[in-house]
Design a protein that fits this description.
heterodimer; A: 233 residues; alpha/beta; 2 domains; 6-stranded mixed beta sheet; 4-stranded antiparallel beta sheet; 10 helices; 39% helix; B: mainly alpha; globular
Amino acid sequence: MLTVSNISVAYGAISALREITFNVEKGEIVTLIGANGAGKTTTLKCISGLIKPRQGEILFEGKKIDRLPAHQITKMGIVQVPEGRKPFVDLTVWENLLLGAFNRPKNEIATALERVFNSFPRLRERLHQRAGTLSGGELQMMAMARGLIANPKLLMLDEPSMGLSPLLVREIFSIIREINRAGTSILLVEQNAFMALKVAHRAYVLETGRIVLSGTASDLIEHPKVKAAYLGE
Amino acid sequence: MQQLINGIQLGFVYALIALGYTMVYGIVRLINFAHGDVFMVGAYLGFFALTSWHLPFPVAIILAMVGCALLGVFIERVAYKPLRRAARISALITAIGVSLFLEYFSSLKFVFGPYFRAYPRPFPIRTFTIAGITISNIQIIVLAVAILLMIALTIFVNRTKTGLAMRAVSFDHDTARLMGIDVDNIISITFGIGAALAGAGGVLYGIAYPQIHPFMGIMPGLKAFIAAVLGGIGIIPGALLGAIIMGIVEKLTEVYISSTLRDAAAFGILILVLLIRPSGILGKKRDEKV
């Protein structure tokens, strides 16, 4: 479904990604784990079109997307839920969700909204509140709902667990699993490697802009190097 | 009281210009110094529509608005878009360049010509006296058209999908892109709408203060800019509030103190705002984006 081949990115003279290659198949949850600054967010931004890779190629459903503007990539069905949720704080929850559904026809929005409320019932009560008044967990839910309402084929989540209590983290991850079961492929970027590996099918480990390990999530969770570096054992 | 009415009339014309400053700033963080000259072009388009082509007044306003919208979009595409990722000072200097270009190009004999022209009155002036206050039909028209346009703008920004996209883009370009919004397109629309309002302002200014020339945009442009800063730049209701205050202060200074101090009062306001409350009356301190 998504094939990333040999992409490299540099910010000025500092190279952020070096010849990254990986893929996501239909129906999968794939996770990229790694420390701060390993290049996880940069990878997602490359796919969503916010950053243009210096070299390499990205294919989505057989089409080359690495030179397309971000809004067209979103229209094709790749939706990124950015790090830090990036809510439009001055707008209401409803307006935030409407923006998520920006390219959907008007007559589909009501049904899409109902589906989103099934996963995130709490948003229904908050619908006409300003997004700036929401708690961290609610903001993460709104950000995911805003992504889901676009009806993505591939949903990319950047650090969904960041800053949340363990209870909320568990809730968010169970929703991620549900979304995937309903048919959406997921590319998940996480610092919380343990949770990510538990929910994912396959995983890649990034270190300073390179992929250093890859495999099924259940293999990697047992890998001594992963255990030592990311699971704190 | 009489001067208050005159001040409000001037304020509404300023508001039409200030809205363009504030909308463009809100969306690309650029002070578009060519905006006052777009206002001038609007005045001229209305002038030719009324005199050479003998069009009715409402058609003249619409023509000026459409012409200025196209000019605004053209300026954005040619002058500012290539600098989107450059340092902000580059775009600012370019804006001053565009402004000078419009002024001097318009002064050429085969364009608008370097001289003053008397603006036509689309209808005879009639005045009404209500409770000791004299209001002319021109004043009523200026106020009515300006208010109508502002209501239309408010509905557009708050009730339409494109308006919602504009608010999203003004908050954060990248996140707006992730929603599937064509940010470049929204920026062009914003320039177009801002310029159209200035164009209407130009025609209204022409019928209210009936003399136009290619450099007429400089002072109203600067004052509308001050109005936008006074109200809180980037905030749409702020532009209207700031503009009305500016109009009233200017008229009162002119009548009760001295007409030579009129402009000084306007710039004095700018200095005071920058010293006391740089974010403007309705402005709030924005959290720094990480």
